[in-house]
Amino acid sequence: MAVRAGSNQAKRAEIDRLCTEVPQFRQAFVRMSAAWGVGLLLEAVLRVPLVYVLSTDVMTGLSVVLLLTVIGLLSAWTASYANRVQSRYADARGTADQDPAPAPTN
Fold this sequence. Notes:
By secondary structure, this protein is mainly α. The protein has 3 helices and no strands.
């Protein structure tokens, strides 16, 4: 579920199509966006008291490390979550695409 559309019109159209046609895609996309929003807000909230407690030199270095750590963790979670959603969707589609088993006759 790599969704790096950027300025590519075809990729953006594909994302729009998936959001419209596949409810699981839209739900996953919203959940990932919310996780990133909450994660980055928590990181910002953590910075506020650190600015007052730590020296400028320490906070300058820690700020970069903190941001990179949060982005790294969110990226890893996003990749893992996207893979789980894709496999669940593929499993569900595979089951739905198969012909149902014939009913037993007595």
